[in-house]
């Protein structure tokens, strides 16, 4: 079954986003709810630090993947075989508990006359990771952004990640890994291309 891809709006200062002061007050409320005293010495600056760190951690809402992917290269000397970028590390947050997801992404595509700068692929992974996520949606979003912007013959994305919402709370199963994939174009319709992607992942060091 194909994943449902959610389009996240890019927020600006007129979108109703709370102010820095309001964000800091929200952190103070949570500290009090947890049983802490926000006024004690060790926590006095915590609300400001948390608000600042959230701006960075969730910076993906302020970026558009299609803008990052906008520049491509056509001088490829006829190269039309698989391009694979493996083991792209990322940190995200589960949208259900706002607890970290730590993992790595593997992204491949089959060029159709144009290629991307390799840093662009890693930046797209980072854009979607720096939002509240489910792993399934993030996998599909990365594939869709590359597929729609580059128009390659196919895109393959695999994500392996540990969800700390399973390790720190609830079932408390440390070390378990979740794997998700999305395939488009030739990777979806041609089993040989999909198998080649998986083989390269296992053999590419």
Structure characteristics:
single chain, 205 residues, alpha+beta, five-stranded mixed sheet, 8 helices, 39% helix
Overview of the molecule:
By secondary structure, the protein is of the alpha+beta class. It has helices at 20-34, 46-57, 65-68, 118-129, 135-150, 164-167, 186-189, 191-203, and strands at residues 72-73, 83-94, 100-110, 115-116, 132-133, 154-163, 178-185. Strands 5-2-3-6-7 form a five-stranded mixed beta sheet. Strand 2 (83-94) and strand 3 (100-110) form a beta hairpin. The longest helix is centred in the C-terminal third of the chain and has 16 residues, at 135-150.
Uncertain segments are 1-6, 8-12
Total beta strand runs: 7
Q: What Rg is obtained from the alpha carbons, in whole angstroms?
A: 20 Å
Average pLDDT, rounded to a whole number, is 90
Question: Helix/strand-derived class?
Answer: alpha+beta
User: What does the main sheet amount to?
Assistant: 5 strands, mixed
Distance between the termini: 31 Å
How do the strands of the widest beta sheet line up side by side? 5-2-3-6-7
Q: Which descriptor suits the 3D outline?
A: elongated
Task: Specify the number of helices.
Answer: 8
Helical fraction equals 25-40%
Secondary-structure element string: HHHEEEEHEHEHEHH
Q: Approximately how much beta-strand content do the residues carry?
A: 15-25%
